[in-house]
Structures are given as structure tokens and as C-alpha cells.
Amino acid sequence: MKYVMIFHANLNYAYLPPDRYEFVIREAYEMTFDTMRESFPGTKYVFEASGYTIEMMARYTPDVVDKLRAAMEDGTCELMGSPYAHPMLPNFPERDGLWTLKFARDVYRDVLGAEPVSFWNPECGWRDYVPRQVRDAGYKYLTGDFESYSRCRRGPDGTPQRPEIYDKEATDDRNFYNFDFKYDLPADDYALHYPFRHVQGLEPDELRVFLRSDRICQYAVRYFMGMKGYSHEEYLATIDRYSGDLEGRGEGALVIFADDAEYVGTNGWFRLKYCNEPDNVFERVPDAQRKLIDLVTAVRERGEFCTFAEACALTPNEQPVTWDDDAAWHGARASTWASTPMARLLRPWQDLVREKLVAMESGLPPTVAEKIWYHLTNSYNSDGQWPPTLPDAPHIIYPFNYRYCFEHLMTAHLMVGGVDLSTLPTDAAAALREVLSLQADLIRRKAMEQRSSGSEEEKSAALLALELLNAATETASLSGHTILSASDYTVRAEALIEARRLVGGIEIEKA
Predict the structure, then answer these.
(1) Helix (H) or strand (E) segment spanning residue 145
(2) Residue 367, class by beta-carbon neighbours within 10 Å (0-12 exposed, 13-18 middle, 19+ buried)?
(3) Tens of pLDDT, residues 187-242
(4) Which of 331, 348, 382 is the last residue of a domain?
(5) Does residue 252 lie within any of the structural domains?
(6) Which spans in 302-427 are helix H?
């Protein structure tokens, strides 16, 4: 059995502002490059990065880019491509996706002198045009998600592709995290270990797809984060559990890591999601390098590592592969990302700007049209509109991430000569209430309790928190506004964050 590690690097990450970029690059990306070079020379791995990520690496840490380039040149690291600013491809028109793929490939060529052949599809989101986009952008190999594939209804004759799994695991209740694996998957399952060459809508071998699975990859993040039940031994047992070459097929491969590169070196926003500690994100994880060394050492005893492209060159499956439109990984739908309050606020404006751009494009100099497409498609960045704000998980959008989307969209808006914002069906005040009010209510409740029964210090902090909450939830000045400016959102969101800190935090989500 061969093994594949894909480190997914994304500096457009939610809750990650530019003043933390160099820290994350050095603690996570550089640490991985150094560890693989020094401890495992010749061992292969995959580094995937958006065009934006590579540009920021070149700006903040050119010496780390040199290390990446050296690893690529000696053949140990395969560069995997992705869209420029990490949008969800299924949530926007096909042509728009081709633009963001072009912008990323321009960066790979200009900064790294590279033309990657493998592609990381953000969140494994799917619509029938996604494989065409990837092929047309010059890629040969595509990542896919095993769980959404195996629960897919769109088989060649309209029946489930994997009825034995579908019957046990398919559900119409799409949660963002659905790790309820009821089917006892055999170790030698063909879809885990061999590439697909028959991708719906394409000719054979125009694009090959290899699948990653949460059955294995969820262990990776939790192992690096030290989560109970995900020890080194338990992670290896899971890898062994699913390491089985199919008899008569030849050696296969298994993806053992295909997740955020930031989790190898920092805690990403793991403590926000699982520990209700939203102010403890992207901190250094002291034992990350040791865990990486332990993992690679143990897996090398089981088989050799290969690149994603090499895995895609193995003996292929002859079964067709596709996904339901709107599929995504972790049991979610792609539209989950398109239905957050900020996504619903921005989309009508984006559509108006796009409509005007398309209408006037033939009369524009090509460089001008391209620049407008650049700013418009950057406003599609998913983490600028994420995470969703729900009653059971009242997250807020991080100010910098929203500002990234807003400012790119405003630039595109101005470059097309503006659109009539009064025609938009959106309500800035309502969107702001939807994003901030649920968490504000929890903070206010705790502040009221501390004001009445806390220590003098707690009472003083509670009074200040209540005043900050009044500022955070003020919407009268936004009455009649169809767009929410980045500054209007930032001052309110930062007031709420400070109020939350003053009361000692709140439980945001049940882990």
C-alpha cells in the first residue's frame, strides 16, 4: 500500500488576519517543509495552496517559498493547485470559476515556475460543471470525497452509486459534520485505493479522480490537536484498518491526511469549534513536529509515500464516478456555504456587478476586464462569509474575512461604473442582527448575572461589556441600507468580541 499526505494551505482562513500570516507560515508550512527535508529526505508529500496563499508567502516569507520550490525541484513535494481565493466552485457560474482558476495558475507560474497537474476542490463541493472547469484549466487529477460519493443518488441509471453504503448512511438531514459511519467498509474497498477514470460528463481519462475519506482523514486533525480518543496508536490502527490492496488489482494507495495544513503546527480554529475558545485561534502547538515525525516514521514502516499524481496513475477503476449536485464533504451541501447571512447579503450585489460586467465586457480592454473579474471572483471567498450563524452555534464572521470580500466587491462595483444599490433586496441592518444578535444575547445574559452577583472587578467588567454590546447591536443608523460596509461591520463585531472577553467567554457551540 502506498500512502498520500496532502497539506491544504489556505491563508484566506476564517479568523486569520494578515498580521498572523508569517506566524502561521513559519509554524505550520515551513515546519512541515523543514521536517520532511531533514528527517525524511526523499519521502514524498503534497502541498496544496491557493494562489492567494502563494502570493502571501512570497510577500511575507520569500525564504519559505525558496524551500517549497527546492522541495518541488527535487521531486519530494508535489504542488497541488486550487482556486485563487478559495471560493466554493459550485456556488457560482462556471465561467467565474474558470477565472479564479486562471488567476491561481498565473501565480504558480510567476512565483514558482510551476504548472500543477493535480487540483484541490475546496470543500469537495460539486456541480456537474466542476470537472469541466478543472479540465479546462489544465489539470489532470482531481480530489474527491468518499463519503459524499458513497451516499450519492446519481448512479448511471439514477440509483445510488454505492447502494450498500447509501442504505446505511444516506440522509436528507445534511449537517456540516456527519461522521456517522454505519457501514463497515472493507479494508480493500476499490474506491479508497484506486483512481477513477470515468468522470461524469467527460471522456475517459480526461480527468482522473482519487478520493479522500473522513474515515481516515478526520483522525489526522484530531491526532495533531491531541483530542481524546485520537492517539498515535489509534490513528495508526485506523490507517491499518483501511490499508488493503484489492486482490488482482495491484498496489493501491490511501490518503491518510487531506486537511488544513495549519493544523500541523498551529491549532487553527480547532479550539473555537471544539473547545468554545474563540479567542484562542492559530496558536503554536508545541508537539506538532514530534507528532508529524512519529506519524511519518510509523507509516513508512507500512509502505512508501507517493504524490497525488502518482496515486492517480495507479490501475484505475472502471466504475463511473459522480456526485449529487450541491454535494460537499463532511456530510454538508455546497449551498451550506451559500446560505450564511453574509453570503445572502453579498450575492445579489455580486450578481448585479457580474451582469453589468458581462454586458460591457466586449467594449473593455482585456486587461481591464480581467482585473474586474479578479476583484469580483475574489469577493466569492468562502471564509469571508463563514461560519454560519445558527441558534445552536451562534458564530460570527471574523471582521477581516468579511472585509476581504466586501472590498474586492466594492472595487469591482466601482470599476464597472457602479450598479443601482437601491434595487437590491437586501437589508444591511437585518443581516447584522442575524450575525451578531444570537451571540450578543448570550454575552448580555452572562454580563447581567455578573453585574448582580459578581465581584467588584466582575461587576465593572460587566458594565463595560453591556455598553459595548449596545454599540455592537446598534442598527438604527443602517436603516434602509442594502449593503453592509466593512467598517460598519468591523466596529460592531470588534465591540462584541471585546464584550465577550470581558465576561470571560461564553459557550458558543456544544462540542
Answers:
(1) strand 141-145
(2) exposed
(3) 999 999 999 999 999 999 999 999 999 999 999 999 999 998 899 999 999 999 99
(4) 331
(5) yes
(6) 308-312, 335-338, 341-360, 366-378, 399-415
What pLDDT is attached to residue 174?
63
Q: Are strands 2-9 and 253-260 parallel, antiparallel or unpaired?
A: parallel
Q: Are residues 107 and 27 in the same domain?
A: yes
Domain that holds residue 72: 2-331
441 assigned to some structural domain: yes
Q: What is the pLDDT of residue 157?
A: 75
315 alpha carbon, distance to own chain's centre = 30
Element (DSSP H or E) covering residue 127: none
- Rounded mean pLDDT of 437-466? 97
CB 506 within 8 A of CB 500: yes
How is residue 78 annotated by DSSP? E
Sign, CA dihedral 300-121-166-200, equals negative
Provide the 10 A C-beta neighbour count for residue 163: 12
Which pLDDT belongs to residue 499?
A: 97
Looking at the fold, whether 19 and 109 belong to one and the same domain comes out as yes
> CA neighbours within 13 Å on the CB side: how many for 358?
9
For 311-368, what is each residue's pLDDT tens digit? Answer: 999 999 999 999 999 999 988 899 999 999 999 999 999 999 999 999 999 999 999 9
Tell me how far apart the alpha carbons of residues 233 and 3 are, in angstroms, rounded to a whole number: 17
* SS3 state of residue 375: helix
- Joined together, the cell numbers standing for residue 40 give 525524511
Hey, which bits of 87-182 come out as E strands? Answer: 118-119, 141-145
Average pLDDT over residues 264-287: 90
| Residues 270 and 349 both lie in one domain | no
Q: How many domains does the chain have?
A: 2
Q: Is 50 within a domain?
A: yes
Shared domain for 103 and 197, answered yes or no, is yes
